[in-house]
Design a protein that fits this description.
The chain is mostly helical. Helix content is about 60%, strand content about 5%. The strands form three sheets. The protein has a three-stranded antiparallel sheet with strand order 4-3-5, with no helix packed on it. A two-stranded antiparallel ribbon has the order 1-2. β3 and β4 form a beta hairpin. The structure holds zinc ion (ZN).
Length: about 375
């Protein structure tokens, strides 16, 4: 196989470029190696050597050596067999052997491809590299065989930070901060996350950091929205409703103001009904009380409108003009629908007036309650 880079190109490549190639090739090697081990385990099993797990050992432990298995497999596939069951078993062994040979060949090719880069690494006197322990102590090591690693039940796993290949120890120690392994980098000062913050992160930590930053950005946006939607009295003090509860958002202020303004339209509607059918007068609050309520409601609405206008930076008239049609629509909604039947029901508790009203309608020969569903004037 022709090498990917000529010796001249290789001599020109940076440490990062060479380690990038090596990282790619070593990953392929690791995959091929694990495939080869899997095929070997299959062949053991196909020859009746099941293998067993032993505590503290990685993978399966077999009774036969690999050489013995290979020899038996070759004998089986080269001896004439009897019967279809035996035939199927031999065909399976043959298939596994073929795949094993292919992946072994692949590993040889990869070793040959890797060699020029490792040679160049040695030729240049083995530059600095950074391997960040993903488990264990999270320290930044020069290589994957540091004596402080692989102390646990499982070997330490590393993230190779290729961007640091070829940097000076001073540069690495500066970026590593607390993470610098003092065995690998004897010049590294000793400190913790507070005193020696690090700039080195494993891919998992990078992912976690990005997720955290996104969450923080989301929260900042929500807070900004809250401010955008929020409202106070013009002097900055909390805006209060009639029960002196806090009105926090502009939306609530608009709803409350609209409600307050709608009182006037409700009273106009009631006046229209009573004018059409004076007999209904006893079933509505007296005029004086209605007028007083309306004034209170309107002054409440105007107080909120001043705050809304202040917040929007527009004249109060503009907000008022926007809310009046909404208030009219709200009055229509509130005194529409099943309002008429609710009116009649509550009127029935005023027994005397109720009976008198019905009698009057009878005398005048008209249907009661009709005025409650009159067409609305445009007030
Ligand atoms: Zn180390």
């Amino acid at each position: 196989m022709d090498p990917k880079h000529t010796p001249e190109q290789l001599a020109q490549m940076t440490e990062v470029e060479i380690d990038t190639e090596l990282s790619r090739l070593w990953n392929q090697e690791a995959q091929a190696e694990s495939k080869r081990l899997g095929l070997q385990a299959s062949l053991h099993a196909q020859l009746g050597d099941k293998g067993r797990r032993v505590q503290g050992a990685r993978g399966l432990i077999f009774s036969l050596s690999w050489e013995q298995v290979l020899e038996q497999a070759l004998i089986k596939t080269r001896t004439p067999y009897v019967g279809t069951t035996e035939g199927r078993a031999v065909a399976e062994i043959d298939g596994t052997l073929t795949n094993w040979a292919l992946v072994s060949r692949k590993l040889e090719d990869l070793a040959a491809e890797t060699k020029p880069y490792t040679d160049e690494y040695v030729r240049r006197g083995r530059w600095n590299r950074v391997f960040l322990a993903q488990s264990h102590d999270g320290h930044a090591h020069k290589g994957q065989n540091c004596s402080t690693c692989h102390r646990g039940e499982n070997p330490t796993e590393f993230a190779w930070l290729i961007q640091y290949s070829g940097k000076t120890e001073a540069e690495i120690v500066a970026d590593a901060g607390w993470r610098a392994c003092t065995t690998c980098y004897p010049s590294a000062p000793v400190g913790d996350e507070e005193t020696l913050p690090t700039k080195m992160f494993t891919p998992d930590e990078e992912t976690a950091r990005k997720a955290r930053e996104e969450r923080e950005a989301d929260k900042a946006k929500r807070d900004a929205d809250k401010t955008a939607k929020g409202i106070t009295a013009p002097d900055g003090s909390p805006l209060r409703d009639k029960g002196s509860s806090r009105i926090a958002t502009e939306r609530t202020a608009v709803i409350e103001a609209t409600d307050g303004l709608s009182d006037r339209y409700k009273n106009l509607r009631v006046a229209q009904i009573i004018e059409a059918d004076p007999g209904l007068r006893p079933f509505f609050p007296d005029e004086e009380r209605q007028t007083r309520n309306e004034a209170e409601e309107r002054s409440y609405a105007m107080r909120l409108i001043v705050a809304i206008a202040h917040k929007r930076g527009v004249p109060g008239e503009e907000v008022l003009a926007e809310l009046e049609p909404k208030a009219y629509a709200k009055a229509k909604r509130d005194l529409g629908g099943d309002w008429a039947s609710r009116m009649r029901y509550s009127a029935s508790f005023q027994r005397e007036e109720y009976d008198a009203y019905l009698a009057q309608c009878e005398t005048e020969g008209r249907k009661p309650w009709e005025a409650l569903t009159l067409r609305w004037y445009k007030f």
